[in-house]
Write a structure and sequence with these properties.
Elements: H1 2-8, H2 14-32, H3 38-48, H4 53-80, H5 85-101, H6 108-119, H7 126-150, H8 156-180, H9 190-213, H10 220-249, H11 257-282, H12 288-310, H13 315-344
Helix pairs in contact: 2-3, 2-7, 3-7, 4-5, 4-6, 4-7, 5-6, 6-7, 8-9, 8-10, 8-11, 9-10, 10-13, 11-12, 11-13, 12-13
Length: 345
């Protein structure tokens, strides 16, 4: 039993389960009511299931109005003109045109189904036949909407926060390995760097996907903060890779003031970022000393780099460290921006 469950698990997302349940309930209900066209109601139920509650509400509203428009068009054409493939195509065109005119584009697919469903009619009791078929569509839509409402949607905010927190831990490990390799950067192999970067980016990409999925249900202010936090960590991953490359090109940093200052500024940056992310993810109070400590360490490292650039015999080394300084400033700017955004909210 374990094997098929492990195989099927990736395919059993919440929306897939909700869609299957909506189809099942619609078919059972319509069969119990004696309908011979339950399949069309199941199609409407599928279209009514959406990943977010607000999206489902808007889709249900548009489909309800679109169903009425399409049914009206099909009824009028069916009563005035003989039903032929040309007439049915004309009905689909008119229904779609009206939906676009009234900005009901979410209902376009169902509208065509309704037009074809209604116009494929018997030769007697056309109006009653039309109302019955439209009722079947409405039942399917209602079942899909109710299922969407009753089954709890995924906690988008919780999932995004968890993935960002996991990404932050991966970035911390990445930074620690960079710090350990400053003296001998060649020992930090390229393949390991790629794996460490990919591990962090995987969590950050999952967080971004969660925010995209629940965009309409997440308060804009919270979404902006989480997106900024996620984006900042993406920048950290790229910057760590670049710093390692620059230190490698410089031949490594032996024990001395440059290595001590670089280590100090990177560790203070970690502390500053952790403080701001704690505020962004959990609403914790930011540590003002963390920001001051980072900017002080950054200024000290910048002064040392400028002195090296001014020395003729160490200018090339100083210029290489100047590029490292630019990467650190970039990371710091992103954390500053996130801190300001958290302060506003």
């Amino acid at each position: 039993m374990d094997f098929p469950l492990r195989v099927l698990q990736p395919f059993l997302g919440a929306r897939i389960v909700k869609t299957g349940l909506a189809v099942f309930l619609t078919l059972v209900l319509l069969h119990r009511l004696g309908s011979s066209y339950a399949t069309f109601g199941a199609v409407a139920a599928v279209l009514a299931v959406q990943p977010a509650i607000s999206k489902a509400r808007e889709t249900f509203r548009q489909q309800l109005l679109g169903n009425a428009v399409a049914g009206l068009v099909a009824t009028l054409l069916g009563m005035w003109l003989p039903v032929t493939p040309l007439t049915m195509a004309l009905g689909a065109i008119l229904a779609l045109g009206l939906l676009v005119r009234f900005r009901l584009t979410e209902a376009a697919g169902l509208a065509v189904v309704v037009v074809l469903f209604v116009m494929d009619r018997p030769e007697h009791d056309f109006l009653l036949y039309t109302l019955e078929r439209m009722g079947i569509i409405v039942v399917g839509m209602a079942v899909g909407f109710v299922v969407n409402r009753l089954i709890r949607p995924p906690d988008v905010l919780g999932r995004a926060r968890a993935e960002i927190a996991s990404g932050e831990r991966a970035v911390d490990q990445f930074m620690e390995r960079l710090l350990l390799s400053l003296g001998a950067p060649q020992e930090y192999q390229k393949e390991q760097i790629k794996r460490d970067a990919a591990r962090a980016q995987e969590h950050l990409a999952a967080a971004r996907a969660a925010l995209d999925l629940g965009e309409s249900d997440v308060p804009p202010a919270q979404a902006a903060v989480l997106r900024q936090a996620n984006s900042s960590l993406f920048v950290f991953v790229e910057a760590i890779m670049d710093v390692h490359k620059l230190v490698l090109e410089a031949g490594g940093l032996p024990h001395g003031p440059e290595r001590e200052l670089l280590t100090a500024v990177l560790r203070s940056l970690q502390r500053y970022r952790a403080s701001v992310l704690g505020q962004a993810l959990h609403g914790a109070a930011a540590d003002p000393d963390a920001a001051r400590s980072f900017h002080s360490a950054l200024a000290a490292f910048g002064q040392r780099v400028e002195r090296l650039v001014d020395l003729r015999d160490r200018r090339d080394f100083g210029l290489q460290l100047h590029l490292v300084l630019a990467e650190i400033r970039h990371m710091g700017w992103r954390v500053d921006s996130l801190a300001r955004l958290c302060g506003q909210g």
